[in-house]
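$ run holo --ligand "NAP" --emit tokens
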Amino acid sequence: MEIKEYVALRKNAIKAQVETLSRKPCLSIITVGHDPASEAYVRGKKKDAAEVGIEAKQTWFPEDITEQTLLDTIRAQNNDPSIDGILVQLPVPKSISVEHINATIDPKKDVDGFTPTSHFRPCTPRGIIDYLTAEGFPFRGANAVVVGRSEIVGKPMAKLLLEKDCNVVQLHSKTKEEDRRFYFAHADLIVSAIGKMHLWDNSYSYRPSAWLVDVGITRGEDGHLHGDFVPGLPVAKQTPVPGGVGLLTRLALLENLMEAVSHR
Ligand code: NAP
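-- output --
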């Protein structure tokens, strides 16, 4: 199933689930300042929430807010039973510690899933695993290659694939080219999360049965968004950019929030 179709189906299911609840689930989005990219992400999150009947409550602070005020707001929301999930949209000004923010959000409400104590899986890897599962990807014993080792995508992605019984290899910028070619040629699944436009092309060998999941997003000189893989590689499945992992990530936030509601 195409990702767009899958996401629409899951959203319908979440909407139906919300309609059975006695109160609207509520996602708190805390933002600081005016970062254009962040504002666009927040608009997207609010739109997704509205589509399925979840309330998205935004609390905005100016750039000069103190860390204390922000942390006090999080603590108040931790104790507010009408709020199911809390996320602080990054970036925040340098005067505020992201570590302190992460340590303050109640792990049961930390729906972004970035911290090790969070009760939820981080949205991008969760979205990918859920989609691959729905599509019937044979995880057990599969050779999975993850390119990139960031805290928010690469590392949790590798961990979740290992939990699904894949043989996981994690590559990064220091991997030798000859080794990368070897691992790509033997991979049943490659998840690339580096953000370098069309780096992985036809000069690499892929198994015809391989699945390629493209997390990378780069805006090209043409003004359009592009992934790490050249489109149309000779494999079994390749996720598009745009309209691929980005949609799965947005969906996973809703899934995490519904999980928060069901565990209350
Ligand atoms: P990041 O923190 O910049 O990490 C990039 C990773 O790529 C690093 O681990 C780096 O290796 C590795 N890398 C860079 N060049 C490489 C190369 N030539 N070969 C192999 N590995 C290389 O980025 P991120 O936050 O994980 O995000 C990665 C990409 O995914 C970005 O384009 C971002 O916009 C996109 N993204 C998309 C979504 C979505 O929802 N679709 C969500 C999150 C991120 P080293 O560790 O050795 O430096």
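-- notes --
Residues 124, 147-150, 152-154, 171-175, 193-196, 215-217, 245-246, 249 surround NAP (CB under 6 Å).
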